[in-house]
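User: My collaborator sent over this chain with a note saying "see what the structure looks like." That's all I know about it. Can you take a look?
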Amino acid sequence: MHRNWILAPTGSFLISGVIVIFIGHGSIYWLLLIPLLLSLLLLTYPSTKKRDYILGYNGPVDLSEYLTKTHSGSSTSQRIEPTMNQMNSAEQPVYLEQNNSATLNTDRTSSALHTHYESSSNNISHGESNDIGESIRLALFSNRNAQITISVVVFLVALAMIISLIFAGENSTSTTESIKIVEKKDTNTELQHHITLPDNFSLMVSTYNGLVISWQADSAENQELWNIGNAQGDTSCQSILFNKGDTIRSYQVNIENNNQYFAYFSPLDTTALVKNIAFKGKFSLCGYEFSLKGSQAVLGKTAFYANLIEY
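Assistant: Without extra context I'll predict from the sequence alone. Here is the result:
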């Protein structure tokens, strides 16, 4: 294997990481499969370092003595004990011949063992050809199958990215719809004690008992018309003006639900607003003028507003 191939997983990982950072879409993370597959491919290559095994062992302990024992074949290496009786000259050559024969047999056995261990160590050190990973790599990336394998990998990565894009689009759509539903639910649950008065405007109460006046708008665009926090917006919406000069400030006026004005007032002014709506003749707000004829009867039928009216 060429040494430059070792840089392939690192380089592809850096390129994929930069693309992920700059694009930031979830489907791009599938590009990280490319460096992963390259790393797995490198694992299939055999090691180039030759290892010598002795008795199936390769390590710091020196076992060379098991292969390098030498056995002398001369008769002088065999000690012959002296005897009191004179040895028969005809028997001595036979004894030496037997010793020499035994020595030769020992040398042959040692040589055979040495040859066996050398061949076994060579087989082990060069046994990578039987490695499963290399067999798979050779099967997938042979001259005939290399183009097919690369095409299949590219196709699978591209298919995974396309499926991720489709599901991401569906999830974002469903998330937007769920947010809208939650917003509508929150609006409905926050505003309570909803009543409609004769001149087609409504009264509601927020969570903190602040009065909210609502009526139909001419504009279909949701927007903020007035906010007391920055004192900016339509100045005709900054306060509600009753006949006989009573004026109460609003702290926020919006167009919501695409066709409804919502004028929010402080909870400190709720009682004063309900009394004015019950006993005054008309009021103006945001350039609209509303008649309060018959409003006292409608307010008196609702327990919450009836408790705020003092006769």
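A starting point for your reply to your collaborator: The longest strand covers residues 211-216.
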